[in-house]
Write a structure and sequence with these properties.
alpha+beta; about 160 residues
Length: about 160
């Protein structure tokens, strides 16, 4: 999806904020807020397998904003092996209809090889005529700095207890 597609998604989101009052965020404002916050968006059509990701999502992983999007298998290949079960369990719960939303934290390989910690908030965004999930979408946020600070705090706490 190109920038126009993202703007349409933003319009859809902004219409949900204040649908009857017409006071929702403008498309440009919402697009700007998401970008400045470093929130990467994604959507997966469960019927066709087609994926869409925002430019912010791509650049978060060290890809060029205009790079072709990663397919689901390529995305899963980037997930840290120790965290793959977390991601697969969250996806399975959504796709099977057991859950309508999920939140998880996992590591994913940046294009240059280092690991990022990502917080994923994902939900069923469309259902088919039988009520089964047809599309999932969500947001990924880089929480690496928080995880590093958390680990340093734990290490310092351990050193203090040992002393």
């Amino acid at each position: 999806m190109n920038e126009l597609g993202l703007r349409r998604e933003a319009l859809h989101l902004s219409s949900r904020i204040h649908p009857s009052e017409g006071k929702g965020l403008t498309i440009d404002a919402l697009y700007s807020v998401l970008g400045q916050a470093g929130i990467g968006l994604f959507k997966i059509d469960l019927k066709t397998g087609e994926s869409w990701v925002s430019d912010v999502w791509k650049t978060m992983l060290g890809l060029d904003a205009d790079a072709p999007i990663l397919g689901q298998q390529e995305f899963l290949n980037r997930v840290h092996p120790e965290d793959l079960k977390i991601v697969e369990a969250a996806d399975t719960a959504l796709i099977s209809g057991q859950e309508s939303k999920s939140k998880s934290v996992f590591r994913i390989r940046h294009e240059d090889g280092h690991w990022l910690w990502i917080q994923s908030d994902t939900g069923v965004s469309a259902r088919d005529a039988e009520g089964r999930p047809a599309e999932i979408s969500g947001a990924h946020i880089d929480v690496t700095a928080e995880k590093v600070a958390e680990e340093k705090s734990r290490a310092n706490s351990f050193r203090y207890k040992v002393l």
